[in-house]
């Protein structure tokens, strides 16, 4: 199968897709006649004899998304993938992600936030495509590029912006920062600075879901966990160890690879012996899917299937979303290594532009409605900045809070009392 | 003048060791020998009162010097209580504690290598998989970093996992998860997620297990913020600490010792826990405070017998809580005796003893009549050869010498 992943193509030329592939990258979303044009990956994937999406425990099948969706499509008549409400929801979420990240960049350069800030511009289709299908009790685990995952999951923009400003009203009281977005209410389990270390945590959350169903007998517990991580992480041991365990115990988890082709300055092809990440799923006994991550509707179709599998107790799925980040790795990255032609190519496939086009061309929404959403989001983001600006910084007394869930963990002082009973403890001046 | 002794001690100390070689086939139970506990064919049962029975088939029984330890036990130590209690070995005490907590709370689960069908490499989880099922007592693949992380994720989402490191040394592979996630997520999430996980396993220098299986990880983990570390040393405190650790909302690392699993003691029948932050008074005394934990407690008690015979009155405290230190119990002792000897199995550099020395100096410097003496293991990888291994760790004779020097 010829793919654009061959090293020769990447290292010497700007990225371009397999010329034999169909239309997806020209018009990112297919809408006219679904049975004749395949939806999903532009890559021709290796098809096994069984083109259905079912698997035995041992072997995983790499399927073409096209087949899955084609089957579904042929059963039902509608030509559209989404309703108007859904379309507007998706649009709004992606606009929120984009506007928020753009504002972060502005605020960073104005000295309102510091440290390492990793922006998600360009990858919105993955977050929106997956997370908008989840329930509140489902969990999301991310990496340091987590602002938009948190927003998609429902964490208010105000809480995220405050966190970035280091204010006490932030979702983590200012203690986490850009790379540690957590929300108990919305089940966002982080936000991790080291790549790969969130994947076992996600596996644990999926384990809890299975445990609740099978040991605690909460029969309706079908919570799913999504683990988001990048191409660089897929060379890390924790990735493989967790693929193994998740498949072994059929945990309700979806491993979502946001393959944006670059790990800071390391091209995926220079780091990976076999760059086709989706192929690694079947090696562990789960399906491996590749999808165009710049196309929110395709991502959503794949996500439905993968999340459905997990909910039904059929086990994990590995989904590789081919996507791209329009900005550098972080705001500190000069982004000099990436070929401008590659960047231009992907900029032309901006997921937001694509969805907008789809909505308008399919009369799901008017320009005016979409502009109204743009405006609304602008206001939300402005409000978030204002709120963050006006919020207080953490007081000294917050320093020692939350180190331990049970502050007796600070131990017994020389006077026989627990240190946390020392009045100076809350002032943050106690010596521990 | 007090000197800080190395693990081997001054030449004088070394030459005072008995010349019988370390040969596990011979009688191991000479008066100065530390308790020798082995698994397998020559199964030895060591009672915590000092008597030793070799091999239940009754090959040899030797009575050690009668226990000169004052029989005052802590208020909670039950052997003299009115209820009959029951006798068991340390690993059984851990098992009992774990089983009771699993019965009490269905969210408590176990994860680790060979904890299920195999019953645990040191039998601490024996029978639990049959009783509670394969999901509650989960046999994991060999992936410490990931299954520890999985335990952390499970803890964040409502379960109370007990993660076993088959040997504490293996947890070096889980350092990423233990340091970054276990210790820190409660804080970085602004208090939203608790991580009530227990990470436990055997460590310490065993019987010629080689360098990598003889590690003392308490010194590596002690700086991690947000965790507690405790070390058990008797069946009584093993069960109590296990239960307390499981019930705690904080992540707790419970250090067991490979050589102590077969200690026998009578423990109470009723439910009890041992406070995670408290130290244990083993033997009250007046002349010198000896702070120790885990296996070294027994070397200290061995030395204590000799010291008592020589007219000294050492106060022995098993610190139990390695992080945080119980500065109240320790402080009261220092204020009474004015002399401190720390006996630990960690390496000289950066060990628990080093931290404890600093903590005591900071808090109780005015009460000290002499510099603190810390006896630690040598800063060497534990050699395989028995003779070398023996001198890597602190031996009772060195403790005796140190006290004599300290009390001059």
UniProtKB/TrEMBL annotation, chain A:
Keyword field contains Iron: no
- Per the entry, which co-factors are needed? thiamine diphosphate
A molecular function annotated in GO for this UniProt entry is: pyruvate dehydrogenase (acetyl-transferring) activity
Instruction: Enumerate the CDD domains for this protein.
Output: TPP_E1_PDC_ADC_BCADC
Tell me the subunit arrangement: Tetramer of 2 alpha and 2 beta subunits.
Q: Name one GO biological process term.
A: pyruvate decarboxylation to acetyl-CoA
Q: What is its EC number?
A: 1.2.4.1
Instruction: Tell me which UniProt keywords the record has, alphabetically.
Output: Oxidoreductase, Pyruvate, Thiamine pyrophosphate
Question: What's its catalytic activity?
Answer: N(6)-[(R)-lipoyl]-L-lysyl-[protein] + pyruvate + H(+) = N(6)-[(R)-S(8)-acetyldihydrolipoyl]-L-lysyl-[protein] + CO2
- Pfam families found in the cross-reference section: E1_dh
Please report the stretch or stretches of sequence annotated as the Dehydrogenase E1 component domain.
93-394
- What name has this protein been given in UniProt? Pyruvate dehydrogenase E1 component subunit alpha
Q: Which organism is it from?
A: Hibiscus trionum (Flower of an hour)
Query: Function of this protein?
Result: The pyruvate dehydrogenase complex catalyzes the overall conversion of pyruvate to acetyl-CoA and CO(2). It contains multiple copies of three enzymatic components: pyruvate dehydrogenase (E1), dihydrolipoamide acetyltransferase (E2) and lipoamide dehydrogenase (E3).
Q: What PANTHER family is this protein classified in? A: PYRUVATE DEHYDROGENASE E1 COMPONENT SUBUNIT ALPHA, PYRUVATE DEHYDROGENASE E1 COMPONENT, ALPHA SUBUNIT BACTERIAL AND ORGANELLAR
EC class name: oxidoreductase
Automatic annotation (TrEMBL), chain B:
Naming one, the record's GO cellular component terms include: chloroplast
Stored SMART domains: Transket_pyr (SM00861)
Q: Which NCBIfam families match?
A: PRK09212.1 (NF006667)
Q: Determine the domain of life of the protein's source.
A: Eukaryota
**Oligomer and partners:** Tetramer of 2 alpha and 2 beta subunits.
Q: Which reaction equations make up its catalytic activity?
A: N(6)-[(R)-lipoyl]-L-lysyl-[protein] + pyruvate + H(+) = N(6)-[(R)-S(8)-acetyldihydrolipoyl]-L-lysyl-[protein] + CO2
Q: Where is the Transketolase-like pyrimidine-binding domain?
A: 88-263
**Species of provenance:** Hibiscus trionum (Flower of an hour)
Role this protein plays? The pyruvate dehydrogenase complex catalyzes the overall conversion of pyruvate to acetyl-CoA and CO(2). It contains multiple copies of three enzymatic components: pyruvate dehydrogenase (E1), dihydrolipoamide acetyltransferase (E2) and lipoamide dehydrogenase (E3).
Class in the EC hierarchy, top level: oxidoreductase
The name this protein carries in UniProt is pyruvate dehydrogenase (acetyl-transferring)
In alphabetical order, the GO MF annotations are: metal ion binding; pyruvate dehydrogenase (acetyl-transferring) activity
Name a Pfam family for this protein: Transket_pyr
Answer yes or no on keyword NAD: no
